[in-house]
Amino acid sequence: MFTRIADNRENRSLSVKLRRKRFALFLSLISGLERPVHILDIGGTESFWRMMELDPSSQVIVTLLNLTESQVTLPNITSITGDARSLNMSERSFEVVFSNSVIEHLGAYNDQLRMASEVRRVGKRYFIQTPNRFFPLEPHFLFPFFQFLPIKIRVWLIQNFNLGWIRRTPDLPKAMAIVESIRLLDKNEFASLFPGAAIHEEKVLGLTKSFVAVGGWD
Question: Are residues 104 and 186 in the same domain?
Answer without folding.
Answer: yes
